[in-house]
Amino acid sequence: xxRVIRVCRKCGAKILSDxxxxxxxxxxLETALGIFPNAVAAGDDCRSATNVEAKEVTQSxxxxxxxxxxxxxxxxxxxxxxGRGGQGIVFRARQKSLNRIVALKVIGxxxxxxKAHLKxxxxxxxxxxxxxxxxxxxxxxxxxxxxxxxxxxxxxxxxQLDEVVKHTPISLRQxxxxxxxxxxxxxxxxxxxxxxxxxxxxxxxxxAKSEPHLTDFGLARLVESESTITRTLEVLGTPSYMAPExxxxxxxxxxxxxxxYGLGAVLYxxxxxxxxxxxGTTYDTIKLLLETEPRPPRLWNPKVxxxxxxxxxxxxxxxxxxxxxxxxxxAEDVEHWLRHEPIQARRTGVVGRxxxxxxxxxxxAGIIVLSLALIAAVGVIVWETDLFRRPAAAGxxxxxxxxxxxxxxxxSFADGIQDDLLTKLAKIAHLKVISxxxxxxxxxxxxxxxxxxxxxxxHVLAGSVRKTGAWLHINAQLIDARTDSHLWAEEYDxxxxxxxxxxxxxxxxxAEQLHAKISPAERLAIERPPTVDLxxxxxxxxAKNLVLDWSYGINEKGSLVKAADLLGQAVAHDSxxxxxxxxxxxxxxxxxxxxxxRTPERLALAEAAINAAFRLRPEAGEAHLARAGxxxxxxxxxxxxxxxxxxxQRTLPNDARLFQLKGSIERxxxxxxxxxxxxxxxxxxxxxxxxxxxxxxxxxxYDYLRRYREEEAILDRTLAVQPDDLDKxxxxxxxxxxxxxxxxxxxxxxxxxxxxxxAAVQNIxxxxxxxxxxxxxxxxxxxxxxxxxxxxxGNEVAKYSPRFMEGLIARMTKDxxxxxxxxxxxxVEQEKLVRAHPxxxxxxxxxxxxxxxxxEKAEALKEAHRAIELLPVxxxxxxxxxxxxxxxxIAGWADDKNLACEQLANALRYPTSPSYGQLKLLPFWDPLRxxxxxxxxxxxxxxxxx
Length: 946
Description:
Blueprint: H1 25-35, H2 49-70, E1 72-73, E2 76-84, E3 88-95, E4 100-107, H3 115-129, E5 139-145, E6 148-154, H4 161-167, H5 172-191, E7 194-195, E8 204-206, E9 212-214, E10 221-222, H6 244-247, H7 256-272, H8 282-291, H9 297-300, H10 306-315, H11 327-338, H12 350-360, H13 362-383, E11 395-398, E12 402-403, H14 411-425, E13 432-433, H15 436-439, H16 448-455, E14 459-468, E15 471-480, E16 485-495, H17 499-513, H18 520-527, H19 534-551, H20 558-573, H21 578-593, H22 600-616, H23 621-635, H24 638-649, H25 656-668, H26 674-687, H27 692-704, H28 708-721, H29 726-740, H30 744-756, H31 765-774, H32 778-788, E17 793-794, E18 799-800, H33 802-812, H34 816-836, H35 841-853, H36 857-870, H37 877-893, H38 897-907, H39 916-921, H40 932-941
Parallel strand pairs: 11-13, 11-14, 12-14
Antiparallel strand pairs: 1-2, 2-3, 3-4, 4-6, 5-6, 7-10, 8-9, 14-15, 15-16, 17-18
Helix pairs in contact: 5-7, 5-11, 7-10, 10-11, 12-13, 14-17, 14-19, 19-20, 20-21, 21-22, 21-23, 22-23, 23-24, 23-25, 24-25, 25-26, 26-27, 27-28, 28-29, 29-30, 31-32, 32-33, 33-34, 34-35, 35-36, 35-37, 36-37, 37-38
């Protein structure tokens, strides 16, 4: 109960022990008049702005007194009021039993609340508590004491959005990033059947790290609910931010588009500094909302560009059907804008605006409809002319230059010219330049419209090179890919020694034709020759081609080793060849990173090349990019690598490698933001859209976030580049297994390969084995194992030998004798591996599984915990997360189901946790089947029905 004292807290008068709120009778009456939100004294005009202001002041003072009056509420000590919502008052409070600070929301009407109010309040709490999302304020406890209904929430320190922007204005880009983040959060709530219905700046809170959190689901309802509470005609929401259908009281028509409107209203506030509609009174505001169109944000703030304004206004359409189809669609369009890509929204033209006006003014429509039609027609004609059309963002692809020399070895020389041109153009921040990995597939292809569409660019630079002795002939053509028309062409006949001067001239001419602004630093970078030694340049160009070939298939180290040798020769010819040193460091680090050579000597070679690059050009972005890769790949120094990348990005605005590395670091580092990692990968794919290695990394990020539809889409893009890649085809079918526990697509692929190309079955024997295990088909599993030979099967952390898999198959079929024999034999070999590599956490995990299978439970768990110590998540989120999964698996095999479920639940916090399909189907988890805790975890991962 609320603590009651015998002295009035307001005036000090003596009171009876059962007096409500610990007040005397006079103070109770005064308090009631102040707390009731709709209480207006006789003679007051609720539409008077002066009276409204006076009333707000009175309520504010009364609320402060209310906090003092309450003092304590059950387990909570009320400290101060921090906010007031549509149904309640929020206090900062201390939960005495746990000694923690929380936000406590209580009904604003206190003990005078009706049953209907209390029922709605409970519904609010239940709706909010059912959501589990990092950007939704979590509910700790829901309770009711003698008519006082309350719930406690996590206390967010940073303050409300509207208060924060008053003191710290945020940029347009930060505003867009915020809305994209909140929109994805709202989409999550919609997927769980819940509308917010009161999205406004005051309900977006910032934590100490400036991360946004959505709160106050005071107006939320279950979308399918039959509650009469949610079907009343009561207007719910905040007038300046509510949707028209909400303001009109059409609660039955509220859908997810209502929240899209609220998101747009918040974006409008951030862009313009004003809400979309604001009248002197609530009535005036609602009238404006229903009868007028919002003023474009650009008229308030000229810095807002047309695309961002269009996105905002699409959210604020009166007709819900004209808004974004979902909060996710809004988030994705905002992210298109953030990446400087074309947006999906289209601004309303003359015809659209005229139609809206006619709908609002039917009486005048008949008089002026012909005039409007004429104006609209003229407007459309004018709009479609090039004179007024907004130019598309400049993007260019530098295609491979055709080698016209008689000597075939000069082909790499022509590629070197193309590569240097591409590198120079990529220095210009105002140009989107497609990376070399993605353009090399268009050698000898001339359909520029198709190329432009596939690469997402407006222009293409093509050309040819002929080297005859010491003479050089270069032809260059700039083509508008949208119209297939030539904008500029030039031929150069120069001495071979002038080659680098010609490349600089071409790059600057292209930038001029595309109206791209070039800063003095960018111009200097374009004019700087890569080397003065033509032999060194030829060696460098050959090495770059080898690295390019390797990027399409990273299983062999031969190309990288040869590239390292060629680059070593290049710097021997020219000790000032800066770019060659940077490329050499990258090659050495890749040899180390992909475990082709994990020796300290390989890292030392990389470091020596980086040091040479810094001696030559300490401020160059390429040197900082090389060091960032070295710190990450060689030492997992996440923070050091990110700091280097921040410096590198200043002069490398269009380098896909930079954003790819950022994504890798963010995904792996402890406390990393997986959404931020994905954004970097997505941006990298825009700059390098046909890089299959990069597309695969982007697909992995979607997989880790369990965004399976998008994972399928990115894998489809990968297969469009390499349609015959069996590994990618198998991966594509694995998505259905992970997502829906459906093995049929994978099974069909395996059957097709076995029937049409038996020799290729070995290439996907791992996939065949997993499919057979998921289907508990021991015969098929044995056949797949026989095809795989002696290859170990697993992931980057732990790999299983064929004998281990034989034991697993026998264990799956309850053939305990055969399983024990296989595991006993395998333990000898696995123990040798652990002794040879005592710091290999993955090898210890496999040994732990074997010991658990053999009944050595204590030893198995000891090995698992040792693996956790060797590779904790605090060192590597990805691999460390996998080790926790192995600990859960080992505990299950050791018949410690409590520990298994505890660690499995722990593993789900990390991106490499097992999927729904893996847990549901694979025999690794058979010992836990039927356990209520395990089955609950599996059910929590099941796909939501549409």
